[in-house]
Amino acid sequence: MTDLRLEREFPVSPEKLFDWVSSPGKLLKWWGSEGMLLSAYNLDLSRTGPWFSVLKNDEGQQYKMSGHVTHVDPPKSVGFTWGWHDPEDNRGAESHVTFTVVATATGSRLLIDHRDLGDDEISTNHERGWSSALRKLSAHLN
């Protein structure tokens, strides 16, 4: 299994960053890669329980993912499972994501650990997706 770890610094308090990565109103502003629109969702990482989102690209292709929020420890971390759905809405292999927020001298750092991704190609695709989403988050916080 392949794991992915990304880190980004933000000039905001850990509490504010945690709010942006867990509460639905803010999460919806940056979730998904650039150029993708959320067409359906139940996306609340501020509480344990199920979540899902459907992203749609310019050509009308839809990509559904879902999982279960496994832990919420404000303002430190939130963890959730992740699985892509196929066109028939069958959920595929499950991976695990943890957002960890750490205080820094100038604000806070977000660590994204995405584990059990399967192989290097899947990891590379997720790295592109998370990096794109983090650019959107950065635009809101910098």
UniProtKB/TrEMBL annotation:
Residues 12-141 form the Activator of Hsp90 ATPase homologue 1/2-like C-terminal domain. Transmembrane segments: none annotated. InterPro entries: ASHA1/2-like_C, START-like_dom_sf. It comes from the Bacteria. Belongs to the AHA1 family. This is SRPBCC domain-containing protein. It comes from Falsiruegeria litorea.
